[in-house]
Design brief:
- It is a single chain.
- With 117 residues, this protein is an all-beta fold.
- The protein has one domain: Nucleoplasmin core domain (Jelly Rolls).
- It has no helices and eight strands.
- A hairpin with a 2-residue loop joins strand 4 and strand 5.
């Protein structure tokens, strides 16, 4: 059996968003992690001009701005972010009285693990 050390571990966090709830504390990102992929899958459409913003306290639109939630589909947000402290990703929906979306966040967290194979 061989052993190998791996220095970066990839994680995926997901959260179902009720678009009628306004702001949701969706995902906690650990200090030093790096977001590599962020997507929003609209599963149940919202009505009217409903939009979704993704960001953090003090900068609510830093990762995604005015994402259209009135059509089913997947929206990919092209943002790379590395928090300098533990951060909570906020999803803020405006103008929706119904709707559901799945938020998926893929991030690397520097760490070392040993793998036996």
């Amino acid at each position: 059996m061989a052993t190998q050390k791996v220095h970066n571990v990839c994680y995926m966090a997901d959260c179902v968003l009720d678009l009628s709830q306004g702001t949701t504390q969706a995902v906690i990102l650990p200090k030093g992690s790096t977001i590599t992929h962020l997507s929003v899958e609209v599963q149940e459409v919202a009505e009217g001009g409903a939009k979704l913003d993704l960001g953090f306290e003090g900068n609510a639109e830093s990762l995604g701005n005015d994402i259209d939630t009135t059509q089913k589909g997947v929206n990919i947000c092209n943002a790379v972010f590395t928090p300098s402290k533990d951060e909570t990703l906020l999803a803020t929906s405006t103008g929706a009285s119904k709707g559901k979306a799945m938020l998926r966040v893929v991030y690397f967290l520097p760490s070392t693990i040993r793998i036996d194979y």
